[in-house]
Amino acid sequence: MAGHQQLWSSLLLGLVALVVTVEPLPEITSFDKVATLNENTLVATGLSTISCSSNPPGDVTRVYLRSVEPGSPCQNCFATLDCGSDKCLQFRPGSGRLNHDITNLYKITVSCEDSARNSVLEVIQVVIIPNQPPKFKPDTLHDSIEVNAKTDPGEVIGKVKAEDDDGDRLSYTLDVVPASAYFAFSIQSNGEVVANVDLRTLCRSFVTLQVTVNDGYNTVGPKIVAVSFKNNLVTPIATNLNTEIQIPEDTTGRIYTYLFVPDDDLTYTVRTSTAESFAQFSTKEQNLDVATTLDYEQENLRVTEIFVQATNGYCESDTYSLEITVTDVNEVPVISDHKTSIEVCEGRVEFAPPFTMTDQDEEDTHQWTIFGGNKDGLVYVHPETGMLGTNIDYDVDPDYDKPKRYSGKFEYKLMVTDKGGLTATATVTASFLDCNDNAPRFSKAFYTYKANECTAP
Prior knowledge:
Oligomer: single chain
Shape: rod-shaped
CATH class of the largest domain: Mainly Beta
CATH architecture of the largest domain: Sandwich
Strand content: 35-45%
């Protein structure tokens, strides 16, 4: 029994000794348990003020950061710093970057410790607020404006407004439809749209601007701005070129007028790939005229090709073509002398007329006829060659056995007709000469004479 009492006494003494050795812990008397932090914050930001005191008061204490969870992407972005008699938990940019999509909540454990290294822990929650995208003002994504196309380079033609609730710095980008007009516009850092050139040089009645805005985190847009122009110019378009025409070789004066729309105050440029044939024509403003006599028979001058451009001083048209072909016109045969004469021997003869016949029409055919004064058919003209001749033995001094006598002159009244029905006439007076065409003859077949020596010879 005495042994049991001794054991309980020892246990009680031990408990008393244990209770006596337990020291009071320091205390975090105040702190902000929850803090918020915008993910786009780029400046040092205080999150929580931590007050730590010893127990009993009077001992030296310190506050330090124990852990940050999760470990990324910004584990090293937090620190405890002096702020008067207290400590402050602070966000320190530069050691990482907040990203709401990766981590939207950090749990930061801080410790309050006294000189005996007794400590107490608390957890501060830091909620990451996502960055808010900028907003267009007005918030519609479609707009339209009318602009005077007569502009000076650098002139502001409009402004796209945007706001950002986070106070982020905004930047703008600009696209232009069609892309060929991109060079004519730029957008400033404040959203002002500037004309880089005189907008009349665009040769358009409208363009579409597409504007996006970015705050460093979010891109919003595009905002569509339909821009229509007044006092604008457009590219002239030909309505009657890129074609071929045919003109007869006897054409004179105006042969063509180039038509463009719009046609106000246009200047025309005409070039050719056939300089020799183009010399037959003259051009003034939008008109093309015949300048010289055309000649189908000159083969190298039959076809002329020209190229036409029009400009209003700002807008130049496409290059258009016009091909001109000179066509044949049936021309009258030409006889060098319409009234001639010739001497030929009597008899049955054929001879060439004393003139020449020409026809400018290539490969033309001709038909010769006698159109009067030959009712008895004494003479002829060869229908194809035009050679003249007699159908009979034309005798101007008949022999004793040929009593028929013909006039010493005959008028060939000739007509030549080409295949197109055009004619020319001529008169040839043929003088038939008495040629040695009759043999001598005796009046009697036999003669008898008597003579003596006294007869005179």
